[in-house]
Design brief:
6-stranded antiparallel beta sheet; disordered C terminus; alpha+beta
């Protein structure tokens, strides 16, 4: 075997190795977010209030994405807390449509139910059990994953990998 083909093989082996490590990292992150969303289904809820809901253009690859902020306050055991998590795994840079849907669903001053971790009340989420997996975000395709509990099983994981060009719409 000549020296040039051997160098090409080494090059591709390194490229594939690095890509595999990146893919494994993305899978590990997504699985962690699914696990956290599943755990949140069992969390108690409290009343909260949206204190800020806005979107502004300027994020993403060419600055054409929309930065979405939904900030809410809630109380647990007399202590006041604040969070920004709407659902697990959500990117802060959205399409205009997804950002508008999020801010419309959670307008400023709206009353909301907040699920919080009883072991760490500062950890909270507005939509427990739902994950917006961002592994496909770099390509513009985002798989949607939703966790659903059933009466007969503690928690069953269903994955809906419908590929869309928009971020997972909040329902």
């Amino acid at each position: 075997m000549s020296e040039k083909p051997r160098r090409n093989l080494t090059h591709w082996a390194v490229v594939l190795g690095v890509a595999s490590i990146g893919l494994l990292g993305a899978i590990a992150y997504s699985l962690r977010e699914v696990w956290r969303a599943d755990r949140a289904l069992a969390w108690p809820t409290t009343n909260g209030t949206i204190v800020e809901s806005r979107s502004s253009m300027g994020c993403g690859r060419r600055g054409g994405g929309y930065f979405t902020v939904v900030r809410y306050r809630y109380q647990v055991g007399g202590a006041s807390h604040e969070s920004r998590r709407v659902l697990f795994g959500a990117a802060s840079c959205d399409s205009k449509n997804a950002s508008t849907n999020t801010t419309n669903q959670f307008p400023t001053a709206a009353a909301v139910k907040v699920a919080y971790d009883p072991q760490a009340p500062g950890e909270a989420v507005l939509i427990p059990g739902k994950v917006d997996a961002i592994a496909g975000y770099a390509q513009g395709y985002v798989p949607r994953v939703e966790i659903r509990g059933t009466p007969k099983a503690h928690h069953i994981v269903y994955a809906d990998f419908a590929v869309t060009t928009e971020r997972n719409e909040l329902h």
